[in-house]
Amino acid sequence: MAGRNVVRELKERFRELVENNGLGDEEVKVTVGALTPKQAIGSPARRDFPLLHGREVMIEAQVLGSCGQAFTDSPRDFIGSLNDVIALEMDTNRNRAIFTATLNAVAAHLGIATGTRHCRNEEPEECGREIAKHIMGDSGRVKIGLVGLQPAILDNLVHTFGAEYVRCTDLNTENIGTKKYGVEIRDGMTDTGKMIEWCDIVLVTASAINNNTFDEIREKAEKERKRLIVFGVTGAAAAVLLGLERLCFRPH
């Protein structure tokens, strides 16, 4: 449906959660700080995860003893109340990341969402295998468009489906035009729409919520009647609150 805005939808649901549970007037402190790669992902054998090279970082919000994480390319420390988070303008990547991490933490505290912290060590590799296995078992050998290069997922999709059944777009200019696991990485700004037209399933990183590209992807997928699946810890609460399909097999 044209005109839908995922952050606006989530912010309204977040406001309802805070008000309905009497959290808005409490002096609840939300602390967000960028995690080191080791804190966020541990020490996986695979060394080509974006987290390990500083292109994106993981931030963590702590609310009432519960944690929520989110990816961002614009980390910022933040301390305030939940009402302060509600008051943030959702016009920058850094503010959207603070919001989604905090939403994940609040959803975890209220028991609405689970798996709001990133997998670690060899779990990302295991998750990539599980995602490929799940899609093959569920849908057979279909064409998959991966929005956002996640090496373990791409590698396992290619291993399971074959490179001719997989395409990938990314926003990192260092990746665009390179070949990873037999798949050319295409420009996320110009080629994602064409990829969605080509594929049967759109597998999109939840980081698209924070970098403000998710709405266009969701709208295109709906227009083309393509199945949309979100992956990653950033979308833990969003998937539950908005009814999005999410695959994330090893979160904490």
CATH topology assignment of the largest domain:
Rossmann fold
The residue-averaged pLDDT reads: 87
Tell me the overall shape.
globular
C-alpha Rg (nearest Å): 17 Å
- Number of structural domains: 2
- Strand line-up in the sheet with most strands: 7-8-6-5-9-10-11
Major sheet:
7 strands, mixed
The assigned CATH architecture of the largest domain is 3-Layer(aba) Sandwich
Q: Kindly, what is the distance between the CA atoms of the first and last residues, rounded to a whole number of angstroms?
A: 33 Å
* Count of DSSP-assigned helices: 10
The run of helices and strands is HEHEEEHHHEHEEEHEHHEHE
Quick summary:
The chain has 252 residues and is α/β, with parallel strands linked by helices. Helices cover 41% and strands 20% of the residues. 43% of the residues are buried.
Topology record:
Layout lengths: L5 H15 L9 E5 L2 H5 L15 E7 L2 E7 L5 E3 L1 H6 L5 H17 L13 H17 L4 E4 L3 H11 L4 E5 L8 E2 L2 E5 H11 L2 E5 L1 H4 L3 H10 L3 E5 L4 H7 L2 E3 L5
Parallel strand pairs: 5-6, 5-9, 6-8, 9-10, 10-11
Antiparallel strand pairs: 1-2, 1-4, 2-3, 7-8
Helix pairs in contact: 1-4, 5-6
Explain this structure to me?
By secondary structure, this protein is α/β, with parallel strands linked by helices. The chain has two domains: 104 residues, no CATH class; 125 residues, Rossmann fold (3-Layer(aba) Sandwich), CATH 3.40.50. Helix content is 41%, strand content 20%. Strand 10, helix 10 and strand 11 form a beta-alpha-beta unit. The protein starts with 5 loop residues before the first helix and ends in a 5-residue tail after the last strand. The mean pLDDT is 87.
